[in-house]
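As a representative case, we now present a protein record of this kind.
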Amino acid sequence: MKDKILIVEDEASMAKQLKWGLSDAYDILTASDGAGAMDVLNSQSPLVVLLDLGLPPDPDNAAEGLRLLEVMIGRVPHLKVIVITGNTEKVNAVKAVSLGAYDFHTKPVDLEELRIVIKRAFHLSRLERQVTELQGMVGVDSQFHGMVATCRPMMELFERAKKVARTDYPVLIQGESGTGKERLARAIHAMSDRNEMPLVIIDCGSIPENLIESELFGHEKGSFTGAHARQIGKVERAQGGTVVLDEVGELPLQLQVKLLRFIQEGTIERVGGKEPLAIDARVIAVTNVDLKRAVDEKRFREDLYYRLNVVPLSMPSLRERRDDIPVLARYFLDAYSREIGPRFKGFSQDALDAMMGHDWQGNVREMQNRIKRAVVMAEGDYITAEDLDLEVTEKGAVLTLREIRDEAEITAVRHALARHRGNISRAAQDLDVSRPTLHDLIKKHGIAVSK
C-alpha cells in the first residue's frame, strides 16, 4: 500500500501537475479548499500535505491557507505540511514555517527536489509517531529502575538482572563508560531481599593506593601513623546489604587477595586487627575494563576473576542499541525541559539524523550532557543538530520500506504484550491476529516476552 499525500490546491493545472509527478510513488488525494482538505484529512489520514496558501474564498490572500495550516497541525500533531508558494510570497511561506509547516517550495516546483523533501517528511512523521508511542510506555513498561529502554538486548539484560537479584551470588557487570552499569547494580540491590539493608558503593579507581585497604576493610587505632581511632571499613558498613565495587579492575594485586578471601570465606580483617570479622554482604563488581584480558596480562588475579564472574552481565553500548536513541532522547528532553519550563516541541530532522548516526563514545551519559546543554542554550522550537554539537552523517539516512515495516511490527507487538503483561492470547486479540501469527512475529523479530 502506497503512502498517502494530500494536495490542497485550487488551481486545477497545478494540482494535476503535482499528481502526475508523484502518483508513481504515492497515493494522491486532492482538495481545492479548506473544508475539502479537512474532510480528506479526517477520513484518509495522510501523513504529508502539499498546501498552496492561496485558497478560496480569497486566493490572493494567504490568510485562509495559514488558518488551515494551524487547524491541520492542531488536529494531527505528526502531520508534515509542505507549503507550495510563488516567488513573491516567501514572506508568507516563512510565516507558515514558523506556524509549524515542515518546509516550503516556490513555483515552478522542482519535482526531484520535492520528492526528496517528501521522503524525509514521511520518515520524520513516522519517527515522531513512534517516539510518542514509546514515550507513552515510559514510566511503566520501558523503565527499569531508572533505565529507559525498549530494544531486545536491554530487555534480555533486565530479565537476567531480575533472576540474579533473587540470589546472593557475586555479579560482574562489564561495559563501556556511561552505559549505566552502576544503575544496574542499584537495580539488582533494590530487587533483592537485601533492599532494606545498606547499599555501599566503593569507587576503587578514585582511592589512593596507600589508603584503599583501610577504606575497604577499616583499621584499628594505632595501626599506622595517623590512625588515631578505629575506622569501620566500607565493606563492613555493608553488613546485611550489598557492596558495589566500582572499577574493580583498578584494585592493586595485594588487595585482590584480601577481596578474594572475603568472597570465599565471608570474613575480613581490619588493618592492624588480630581477629577476622564475619561480614554478610553481597558483592557486585563493576568495570569498564576487559577483566579477561587483564587476567591474561597478569594485572588481575584469575581466581578472583572467576569468583566474581559467577553471573556476568554485559551492558550494551548505545551504538549497540540504536533503536533506543529516539525514546532516550525524548525522555531526557522532557526531563530537562521540566527543570527550566517546557518550551520545545521536540527534535528537528537533522538532530534525529545526527543522533542516529553518532558513535556515542560516552554512551548514555554523553547523550544526557548534550541534551541538557542544548535545553539551556537552544533558542528555537526544536532542538537541532547544531544545538547538540553533532554533525549529520549518512548513518541517519531514510529507512527502507522493509525496515519501516519491521519497526512498525516490533513496536505494535511490544506494546500489545506490554499492555497485557505478556499474555499471548490477549495480545493477539488486541492486534487482530491469530496466536500462531503472533508467535511467528515474536520469533521473527526476537522479541522477549516477560510475564
